[in-house]
């Protein structure tokens, strides 16, 4: 047994000594060189007794790398000989334990030409990218032209642990529960495979009795001739983000609903109490002026002035009540209420205002959607009155299933859209910003087209919700 062990030790010693590449053993902690072979002596031109007094920093032309715990690592390093000559070599690194201490073995292979260096650098770069893709928190899948999964990273395997990807299943079957029978309608991969461009989509994908929301970006993989060979699908799980957005949207809706309820209460109080009391006072003054012929002229004049002030105050209170809550919205509906509001706006502001509607006749609309459309028109016309210097405004409300389209146009002085949006907060012109926030709450989109001297067009589109829809779905 002892003889066999001694023979084995001699065999490994001979293998180490006669290796054609330089072999260096050093201590991991101190980096002091402890053993070298014949090729190392020749390559570095050091005698063995001098070599054993050196550390890595004495023979490496750059700072030594931070050593890792991997069993084997390859890299390129620049070394110095005893005479100071610098040469480039490939290092294969291994780690072992001897007498309870960690040791590192370097096999140093001198690279004869630049092509060897470039090839190793390319290989190292590929390994780095492969490691990055494998360990990134975003799912990455390589999908062939036949929609089969060629390979995928650790994150995708973690999301779908029960799928055997070694058989290269079809992606629309592997990534859906139950498995899909045909290519998903939203699929950006099939679009990328067709036109070679990057496509993006957000998808709801069933998974183990729940629904996940994924943001999917597909990029083409082309060969040297420019032919599309496959597509890289990058998948980000945005389920938590969607849940947070729904919660924020619900809270915002509740806040707006509470605000509208408070406005309704104040509106009713102004109309039914304050305005009525003021009207009673005006009637009493009128009776006093009509019945009493003995009033002094100055008293009569004072009462007449008071009656005029009361008339203006009553009109102001009623206008304020109507602004807080349109009185006909519930009784006569959104279309008629907006038509009346535009007529009143034209009379009050001196701006010709037109209202046109199509596609929404006899359609029951969600009350939350109705009041927000009303507020958008209200804010849009107020912006025109304050800033546009317009002579004409036109409102279009169109039902184009599955959307509702609102357009607000004027022939005013116009403005620089980008500059105004950037300066909107500092200038306290919050009309456009508040409109955009309201549109976002309705899951809609708003665009503005305007140029100085060419008027303004606001285009708003949001999904239609009928009268039975739950507000939480908006």
From TrEMBL:
Residue intervals passing through the bilayer: none
Membrane topology: Multi-pass membrane protein
Chief localization: membrane
Subcellular location: Cell membrane
Source organism superkingdom: Bacteria
PROSITE patterns: HIS_KIN, PAC
Gene Ontology CC terms, in alphabetical order: plasma membrane
Residue span, Histidine kinase domain: 373-466
InterPro entries: HATPase_C_sf, HATPase_dom, His_kinase_dom, PAS, PAS-assoc_C, PAS-like_dom_sf, Sensor_HK_TwoCompSys, Sig_transdc_His_kin_sub3_dim/P
Protein keywords: Cell membrane, Kinase, Membrane, Transferase, Transmembrane, Transmembrane helix, Two-component regulatory system
Domain PAC: start-end pairs: 197-250
Molecular-function annotations in GO: phosphorelay sensor kinase activity; protein dimerization activity
Protein name: PAS/PAC sensor signal transduction histidine kinase
Organism: Desulfococcus multivorans DSM 2059
């Amino acid at each position: 047994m002892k003889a066999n062990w001694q023979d084995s030790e001699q065999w490994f010693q001979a293998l180490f000594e006669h290796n054609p590449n330089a072999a260096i053993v050093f201590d991991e902690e101190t980096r002091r060189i402890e053993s070298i072979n014949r090729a190392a002596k020749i390559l570095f031109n050091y005698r063995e007794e001098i070599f054993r007094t050196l550390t890595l920093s004495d023979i490496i032309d750059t700072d030594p790398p931070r050593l890792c715990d991997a069993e084997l690592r390859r890299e390129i390093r620049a070394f110095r000989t005893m005479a100071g000559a610098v040469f480039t070599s490939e290092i294969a690194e291994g780690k072992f334990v001897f007498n309870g201490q960690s040791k590192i073995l370097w096999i140093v292979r001198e690279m004869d030409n630049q092509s060897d260096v470039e090839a190793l650098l390319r290989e190292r770069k590929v390994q780095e990218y492969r490691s990055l893709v494998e360990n990134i928190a975003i799912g990455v899948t390589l999908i062939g032209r036949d929609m089969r999964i060629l390979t995928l990273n650790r994150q995708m395997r973690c999301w779908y642990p029960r799928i055997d990807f070694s058989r290269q299943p079809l992606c629309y079957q592997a990534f859906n529960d139950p498995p899909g029978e045909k290519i998903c309608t939203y699929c950006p991969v099939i679009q990328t495979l067709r036109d070679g461009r990057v496509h993006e989509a957000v998808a709801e994908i069933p998974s183990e009795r729940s629904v996940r929301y994924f943001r999917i970006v597909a990029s083409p993989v082309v060969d040297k001739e420019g032919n599309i060979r496959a597509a890289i699908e990058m998948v980000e799980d945005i389920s938590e983000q969607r849940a947070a957005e729904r919660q924020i949207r619900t809270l915002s809706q509740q806040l707006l609903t509470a605000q509208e309820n408070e406005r309704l209460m104040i509106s009713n109080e102004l109309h039914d109490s304050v305005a009525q009391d003021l009207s009673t006072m005006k009637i009493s003054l009128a009776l006093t002026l009509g019945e009493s012929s003995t009033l002094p002229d100055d008293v009569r004049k004072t009462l007449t002035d008071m009656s005029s002030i009361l008339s203006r105050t009553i009109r102001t209170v009623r206008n304020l009540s109507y602004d807080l809550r349109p009185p006909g919205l519930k009784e006569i509906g959104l279309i008629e209420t907006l038509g009346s509001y535009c007529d009143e706006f034209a009379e009050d502001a001196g701006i010709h205002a037109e209202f046109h509607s199509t596609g929404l006749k006899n359609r029951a609309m969600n009350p939350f959607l109705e009041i927000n459309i009303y507020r958008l028109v209200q804010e849009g016309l107020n912006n025109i009155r304050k800033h546009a210097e317009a002579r004409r405004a036109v409102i279009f409300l169109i039902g184009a299933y599955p959307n509702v389209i609102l357009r607000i146009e004027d022939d005013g002085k116009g403005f620089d859209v980008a500059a105004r949006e950037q300066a909107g907060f500092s200038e306290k012109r919050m009309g456009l910003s508040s409109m955009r926030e309201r549109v976002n709450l309705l899951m809609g989109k708003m665009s503005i087209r305007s140029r100085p001297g060419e008027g303004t067009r606001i285009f708003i589109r949001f999904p239609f919700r009928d009268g039975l829809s739950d507000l939480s779905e908006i």
